[in-house]
Amino acid sequence: MRWIKLFEEFGNDFINLSNILTKYDIPFHLWGKGKSKTLENLLDEIEKKECYLEEKNGLLIRYIEFVGIKIYFRNNKGETWRLFEDRQEFKDGRIRRRNMPNSVSEKMIAGEDALLAGLRGIKEELGIEVNENQLIKRQDLFYDGGSLSYPGLETKYKGHKFICYLNESQFNEEGYVENQKDKSTFFVWKKL
């Protein structure tokens, strides 16, 4: 096994990353269309230490660790609502709808505690702060597979699952919008 330390061996540039992907026959020229992200997005993830690439048995593999949080609200009538990601609208006009199992999914930064990553994810994606005691750890999971974001790049996932109940002051009936430099993500409530 050889770790690909992009910024130590190659520098943090776009051309060197594209050369690595070419070496492993990753079809990055198809990225940035449909539901996929761009090569620049992958470089950004690596720079932020949200993922790393590793050569293993002749394959290039992307590793990510994430938190997945199902978010609920129960009103004073006993009605329960669950938050869902509705869509992502990219600045280039594309719209991506994903059937996400979690309300909020956040890539962890290397070495970050899962609970703290969950708190950060809710704040970044929904713009609200929750207390540590509102996050309840459910399970950890591991799985391998492709990536909707980077087709052709094998990805290994480690996830930490939580649930969270918002209080009335945190609840916005109209939902939430996360605005990023390349896209906006829209979250909506559905009554259970």
Observed structural traits:
192 residues; alpha+beta; Nucleoside Triphosphate Pyrophosphohydrolase; ten-stranded mixed β-sheet; 4 helices; 19% helix; globular; disordered N terminus
Structure summary:
By secondary structure, this protein is an alpha+beta fold. The chain is 19% helix and 41% strand.
Q: Separation of termini? A: 47 Å
What structural class results from the helix and strand content? alpha+beta
Number of helices: 4
Number of strands: 10
Can you name the CATH architecture?
A: Alpha-Beta Complex
Class, according to the CATH hierarchy? Alpha Beta
Estimated radius of gyration: 18 Å
Helix content: 10-25%
Q: Which regions contain 5 or more consecutive residues with pLDDT less than 50?
A: 1-10
Q: In total, how many domains does the architecture comprise?
A: 1
Structure notes:
The protein has 192 residues and is α+β, with helices and mostly antiparallel strands. It has a single domain (2-191), classed as Nucleoside Triphosphate Pyrophosphohydrolase, CATH 3.90.79. Helix content is 19%, strand content 41%. Strands 1, 2, 3, 4, 5, 6, 7, 8, 9 and 10 form a ten-stranded mixed beta sheet that branches. A hairpin with a 4-residue loop joins strand 4 (80-90) and strand 5 (95-96). The longest helix is centred in the middle third of the chain and has 13 residues, at 114-126. The relative contact order is 0.20.
